[in-house]
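Table S2 (text version). Query chain:
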Amino acid sequence: MKKITFFLFLFVSLLANAQTFTLNGKVVDENNDSLPGATILVKENNKGTATDFNGKFNVNLVKGTYTIMVSFVGYNTVSKEISLTKDDKIEFSLMPNSTVLEEVLVSAVRVNADVPVTFSNLSKKEIAKRNLGQDIPILLNYMPSVVSSSDAGAGVGYTYMSVRGSNGERINVTVNGIPYNDAESHGSFWVNLSDFASSTENLQLQRGVGTSTNGSGAFGASLNILTDAVSDEASAEISNSFGSYGTRKHTVKFSSGMLNDHIEIAGRLSNIKSDGYVDRASADLKSYYLQGSYTDENTLIKAIAFGGKEVTYQAWEGLTADQLKEDRRQNPYTYENEVDDYDQNHYQLHWNEKLNKNWSTTLGLNYTKGAGFFEQYKEEKDAEDYGNLIVDGTDVIVRRWLKNDFYVVNFNTNYKTDKLNLISGISYSNYSGDHFGEVIWGEDLAPNVNIRDRYYFSDAKKTDFSIFAKATFDISEKLSGYADLQGRFVNYKTKGITNDIVPIDVDADFNFFNPKIGLTYKINNDNSLYTSFAVANREPNRNDFEGGVTTHETLNDLEFGYRLKKEIIKLNTNIYYMDYKNQLVLTGALDDVGAPIRATSGNSYRLGLEIDADITLSDEFSIKPNMAFSTNKNKGFVANIDGDLQDLGNTDLSFSPNVVIGNMYVFSPTDNIQVSFLSKYVGKQVMSNFGSQISDNDVLDSYFTSDLNIVYQINTNKVFKSIVFSALVNNIFNTEYVDRGYYYTYDYTDNGNTVTGDGAGYYPQATRNFLVGVTLKF
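Corresponding structure-token output:
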């Protein structure tokens, strides 16, 4: 009997020790935001898993003592020892490691909640959910006050965004602190950064003047992009997506992880193609991203090369109202090679050195090389329009070229204590560009003219030097101050003949002082108030000079905001008043290559209220709404109508909707699936500044669209770390809408009287369409 009792006791003991328990866990960052895709490793049995969309994980283990290790790219690895005797829970909070580029490469242009600047962040995990081939402006569509569009209608190719009614020429864009805006046009050509979202760690959109930035001043917003952080672990992934209108994206990424604890090599190759929603508005986009990094305790050196080639069939002429009704997918162009063909390559070197616990320095170098052309077929043209290289009335094919070189040097110092964060720095850029057109075919060329003879040429040079110092400092326990002083000195020269065969000769200097001040008051740990006043000045772009505009514009931006941050709700709300002097407003018209034409409006203003929130209703359900209400006016606008200058009074600013509302419903019924329903409402816009004094052809109707996004992740311990399936249904309710257009006027004579006529063009966007993709992570 004793033997039976002994064996029974032994059996029960073994059974108890062999019983399996579940360890549930969650991984968050320092802001208590979840970290999906973090690696979980049980050291004793070398088994692991990854966190789901909500940063959660679970592992089944028998009774015992274990060391749980958690790692995530850009964060310090954390380990905890647990003694498991029952089902248990554990939480890990990871801190950024010393090589996170957000701290060392973009600290000069980024802000946080301690700075009285209105901003929103978008993380890599949020970008990845909808990153199936569409460009960055489309991926940013659901951020506050953002309106995005594309020529081809499907979000691939030439894409655009505006913020607070300010178009891309007024949005300062930096990549790792390096200016990206074209030095002459001030625009950001996203078609040259295809699939860049796949190499983006995170981005920050500052609305209003924001903080001092490198490059052209921010007159509506600034967008700061941070590229992929250094990875401690080796990894690889293959991503493929397919969808409507022949859209497909193929991406390969890799990282060597840390070699010898110091060196990492990583890269990406991508190819995106689309036929476009608009007929023949095709895009063939090839891009790459390569980086090599060296890190030790006090040093980060990072070399980056990225760029690519785009060939895009043109659709920037849009459609007339009649064409829109007849067939909204038609394309007026018929020449088979009416394409934009452009190569652009960027080379960056960044060196951050931590001198001691308070001081650090950052050096950034950049060289950008761009070259390409736009090919056009023209019928029965006048000889003088093409430098008399052709005979009057002949057909001709021309290429209009741009070749440019862009050099940048940034240097910043950072002094940081518990009560003071002081950043000072300088930025210098040098741009040179050649603009020329050549005849590549002519039905009847003039005597002694050869193919590829140039019919116009002008060269351009621009230097841009800025020096700044900005500080955030504690005034009391609850009140902190912010001061930001920038001097910017610009010289622009161009001489020669424009594509309109008109002489151009510019040698202009601009000296700007841009001060910014503000206060932040922390009511308690969850609530804070802020206010700021900022001044920005901005020089005309090349098109402005060609149109006779030589005056710079000035913006005074006043912001007042409130921030709430709790575990279940994050709320940001702000009121802004942006007062402009000599604002260069969009006239509504386009030049002959689709670039917007601007004119000085005198005095104007934008007054608005913005609200955005992130509300967690349960572990499975959250809502992320944002709303922007504004009034945008010219003061005493004067225009030439019917041959006379007329004072039209206070008129609406063009392309500035008074209402922009976005929302995301996010539902995670299980750990590995997330369903998001996204909606966007954009109110009525006018395309001119005339206050509909001529006709109502300048009105774009309001529109409401919705998208459905589904992501399903499978974690596996075998060949792949995880397999992620994604699906995106855009415009799920099949709305026919136009989100962008242009408007123009012309004068003609009727019975001896001068009469002003008008016309308009519209860019139809895609009806219901889809993209599906799969990503294999090794």
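Notes on Table S2: The CA atoms of residues 238 and 252 lie 5 Å apart. Residues 1-17, 98-102 have pLDDT under 50 and may be disordered.
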